[in-house]
Amino acid sequence: MSRSIRTAFALTALFTAAVAPTAQAAAPAEPRTADLVTAASTVQPNRAQAIKGDQTGKIAADCGTGTYNALVTVSGSTWTARNGSSTRYTGSSMLAAMQAAVNSLTAGRTSKQRVVVQGSGTFSAGSRLSLASYTVLDVCGTINVTGSGSGDYAPIYARGVRDVEVQHLNLTGTPIYGIFMRNVTNVILGQIDMRLSNGLGVRIDNRGDTSQWTRNVRIDHVYVSGSGSHAVETYGVDGLSIGTVIARNTGHSGLLLNQTINATIGTVDADGAGTGTGYAAFRMANRNGRVGSSYPTNIRVGTVIARGGGRGVFCVSESGGAVIDRVTISNTGNNSILIENCYNVNIAAVSGSVTGGGEIRLAARTEFANNRDILIQNLTVTNTRITENPCGTNTTFRNLIRNNAPLNICS
């Protein structure tokens, strides 16, 4: 075992790390990480004008601008879907109009075509808009979800498809899922805003066919409040890029990564995420970061902010291969940081603070191998304990400034 503890002055210079080559996994079958999709949509020369404001007042100024293939509008209570000069739907259902617009796009297309929606309306919780491959959706209004249900229903749904993009989406109400995508490839979620009173915000996974990864997912900015479960959750994803996740008073985690590899996360900012639970602002579980049978560094997180809620950072169930540059954790109801049966985890590679709340704890369950190669560093810890039990292998604590922060670790 190699262990060290020493107190240093607060860091004044940023730490610059060499970026390791993208790790490759051994299972599911033949995983690889292709370039994330960044190309602009290929569309026809119709043009939509941005609309500003709706019942929530959160519509982006650039929503709906640019070229499109199909357009959905509302006048009074009548929804209309058009593709060029052809009217594809007229009636009272926002969902039916949107689905008609999506279905009007060229069958068998191999480049993206775009649907713009102008107006706000209602979906039932037990319904879904299904996206086909090579579809771009831009919703310039708010979808309010009513009622209840069960299963994988979501206002925005994609399964077994590729090259789908949601540029803007504002969602309120009681969805089962806000966005649900399963066994997909090349996904872009742009500006997503969900102010909910139930459900899970964004779920992207491979659970329909676990022998294949969901690949190449980009999420620019997601805001979720009031969900009954997580703000954002992935499972079985190879190649994940997230800009910012903002979680406010979510039932469970702000960001939960399960069995996800080759991920780069900018910021997780959570306030009140998972209050009264063991979930965390940022949680890694179910062999997250495991590539084949090893844990090379392939999960990179810029900043985790956690105020109140359940835990701050939680790594569990044979996860690892992670570096978090900066943490700011305060007054969590459960552990500020809990590392349990994880491998190659670096907390606060640049800097961090933990204030109040539950202890920083390194622990282990007997059904998994103990912690290994854990580095806790560059932290100012105030009014909470630091505990390691049982002793892990190659655990290092260094550059800790402790203010009323008892230390109980292995020597």
Automatic annotation (TrEMBL):
Keywords assigned by UniProt, alphabetized: Signal
Keyword Repeat in record: no
The protein's name: Parallel beta helix pectate lyase-like protein
SMART domains, per the entry: PbH1 (SM00710)
UniProt xrefs under InterPro entries: PbH1, Pectin_lyas_fold, Pectin_lyase_fold/virulence
Source superkingdom: Bacteria
Record bears the keyword Transmembrane: no
Span of the signal peptide: 1-25
Residue intervals passing through the bilayer: none
